[in-house]
């Protein structure tokens, strides 16, 4: 629980007696302690899956902190952290992945590079490098 505070202030909370089925989109940080079935997505948010949560969904977020049960693919732009008694069944992809001892993970794990080149080319006023001609000495 203490490490989950790194994710920032929780802006949305789904309690342990709640269930949602469908697509859950959010901004900021959301904590889920209930049941979710479907898809969870956020372009820049962090999802915290509490110890009593059961998530049967694909998760596409900036960051994920898992302490409950997740059945589905987790694709994070920044990081995925799994703490005991967390249980993940499915594939996980992120530049930074941390699975503490005592947590359970069954699936494939992919470490993807952070997309620095995309940010660099999208800055205004910057020209992209031009390709050189054959025989140019660089």
TrEMBL record:
<protein>
    <recommendedName>
        <fullName>Polymer-forming cytoskeletal protein</fullName>
    </recommendedName>
</protein>
<dbReference type="InterPro" id="IPR007607">
    <property type="entry name" value="BacA/B"/>
</dbReference>
<comment type="similarity">
    <text>Belongs to the bactofilin family.</text>
</comment>
<dbReference type="Pfam" id="PF04519">
    <property type="entry name" value="Bactofilin"/>
</dbReference>
<feature type="region of interest" description="Disordered">
    <location>
        <begin position="110"/>
        <end position="138"/>
    </location>
</feature>
<feature type="compositionally biased region" description="Basic and acidic residues">
    <location>
        <begin position="115"/>
        <end position="130"/>
    </location>
</feature>
């Amino acid at each position: 629980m203490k490490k989950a505070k790194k994710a920032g202030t929780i802006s949305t909370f789904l309690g342990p007696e709640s269930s949602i089925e469908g697509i859950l989109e959010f901004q900021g940080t959301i904590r889920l302690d209930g049941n979710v079935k479907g898809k969870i997505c956020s372009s820049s948010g962090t999802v915290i899956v509490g110890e009593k949560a059961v998530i049967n969904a694909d998760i596409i977020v900036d960051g994920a902190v898992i302490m409950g049960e997740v059945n589905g693919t987790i694709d994070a732009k920044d990081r995925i952290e799994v703490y005991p008694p967390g249980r993940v069944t499915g594939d996980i992809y992120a530049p930074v992945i941390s699975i503490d001892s005592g947590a359970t993970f069954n699936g494939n794990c992919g470490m993807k590079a952070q997309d620095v080149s995309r940010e660099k080319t999208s800055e205004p006023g910057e020209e992209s490098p031009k390709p050189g001609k054959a025989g140019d000495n660089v």
